[in-house]
């Protein structure tokens, strides 16, 4: 903080002490931009006019340097706050990001599982307050621009970052993100508690080659599915910008995808958009989209991105690139000023230039981990949990029942990449022990010792030390607990100090980590059984370990016992001694109890996370076997599944009587689970994703066309294990008297819901629709509204939903706009997408989408169907085209060619000669003509190719079949 800033703060403090309520005279302000009584635009203009060109350029970097001559301090973009304040991009003395130690709420997918926007707004408020609290202590480290929430749709359950998103449905995602963002920024009309930024714009739902893959979004998927997830919060004023994604969208890097005509237009306030970390450098690096950083920088700014998240704290490369872009005329001074205006609007709204910091400027560190926030975390964790199964009223557990709590997650809590540190921990075992005296427990994991040449692998004590072959007896320092995370990957926890074995110094092993963690998760291993009965210990730190280290991923012990990594043929062969069987220990505990609670699930740094998609949806094999053994020993078994995504647990669903799902839910997990298990809280969480059955085929993770592939509950016809919206309760609910009446440009839907059971509980009432007749493929059903309502036993309430006719619109590719078709719609109300309790039909009067007229130039991207074709970039700035290879096709349905056309003209770009067939009725139907395509000189070199056609008359479907690789921009039939 500069001297002048301190002086201003002192004056403000004195004024408050004296009780001076009136606004100070204008002359008291050093500069007009400091005067909060002036309009925001005037204050912004004043400060902008005082900045030099160099200062303005420097502010485009994520670390906006101080301007001491104006008393302005450093402003740092980006504090991670996905489900609590997590960490800052600032680096500590040890080279690590600075991590918060405050309230950690359930992971984002768990927040959405509450289906309770009012509650999530309270969570957002707590997060915004804690961000302010940290900022008050160290504004350099803890910036008030928060990079949250993530609103990428959970289209594919294998996505590594599934835990970060909310739902596979855009309406639910929009509602929860709006609530969270609203809470973060507060309700003051002029000031922000903190500034939420939506991540990651857009179509970011795969980690494999995430910076070079392109998400192909046909117009219907783009406008009906992807855009609403972002648009909702922005239109509601619940976000202050977006972060661009790493991936390409329709062939163009998201970092330079136009935000000015999309995102910026969806908000009535000025936005401050940022790039993802390293995104600008990818443009000239892995994506090779531009030749120079100056060209890339110009494109970034012109696209509407005002902050380069790149090069850590070093803003010099960004300043040099932007400066060169200005010198070369790639950017103008006006472009620069517009970007800085975006920044200033948010900095002013954060109260930075007000004497007292604005209405939120008095929040202190005392709010962090407050009793109120702890209570909110406990409630949220309970409300987010989903009761998947509860046969024979296994739950809730009666008081006085003897309980065994077993499983690898029974007595631990894990954080994830976007978690803060836990200030305290209440594990599932802790929570249940508070309720049930005499609780027995067992982790249910094998304890082993590894021996070679008469010596055991020995670990250090305390903070840990390098492992080595040393002792000739197997005491505590020679024993390791083996945690199975599936697909052969295990972690080894040293009995000597309770810490996990990790690879250190890129070679040796050390028992040093409190939990598996870090960008490169060094705590993963495989115990590979050999034909001679021995075991090889293989480092499996990440999926591409062999790509990084070649074949040197096996552990070798030298003659002196020190360890290194080598190839399999040279690896040490260990004898494995089982000191204790985890299954036997768990079974013994289960036999002593009336109820066995088995806590299984995932390790967030291992089972799918940023940069690593899942390749398997199953529960770890060893964990499944543990549950089955415990259930065989005690049929009264409850499974708590603690993870962040759909899991194929078909066998367990058939066998065990009760299954409760929770995300990794923070420090209060154990209390929340105990509240649920003992009935103090009644489960009411609902799934926000479809859980597929084992063996259900899934589309390729890079295929974003949910319409063609039949993905998500919207278009899938497969029988799920658990449907979208599924969740049970300890009570029952009846639905009566569904009414659909015209009102206010649509209909009002109402239904009476009654608690027909003996316990108070929440029901999540869900409204869906399905359109009967349509020009295009319609969703099987689509969520149109939901309400979580609390009802006492016997209590009834009429739940009402607005159903606007405009909300039933589809994206009409024939005209490039939304249209409501005249059709009958099913109106469906129930407790999940599959459990519909009341239904009605309503006739909606709209319009009939007419036949296509291809004699008018039609964008190729506006096709009706396709096979293999992808959307690609027409130019590096804007526009979509279609790219395809030999045998792939696009179709235009119900084309009315009247009395006939005689020719076809295509806008094409090709690097080699090729051709396109025009076929009628199907991709193998009547050949109407073949258009030869000459090489045009490149994918952005557009030319016209044409040919005669015959038999094209009346109304029929037209197919363009690619006979080689090329791009088509548009198609026109000619007479």
UniProtKB/TrEMBL annotation:
Source taxon at top rank: Bacteria
Position of the signal peptide: 1-27
Keyword Transmembrane: no
Record's protein name: Glycoside hydrolase family 3 protein
Keywords linked to the UniProt accession: Hydrolase, Signal
PANTHER family: BETA-D-XYLOSIDASE 5-RELATED, SUGAR HYDROLASE-RELATED
CDD domains listed in its UniProt record: beta-trefoil_FSCN_BglX-like, CBM6_xylanase-like
InterPro entries given in the database record: Actin-crosslinking, BXL, CBM6, Cellulose-bd_IV, Fn3-like, Galactose-bd-like_sf, GH, Glyco_hydro_3_C
Gene Ontology molecular function terms on file: hydrolase activity
Pfam (any one): Glyco_hydro_3
Stated family: Belongs to the glycosyl hydrolase 3 family.
Residue span, CBM6 domain: 856-974
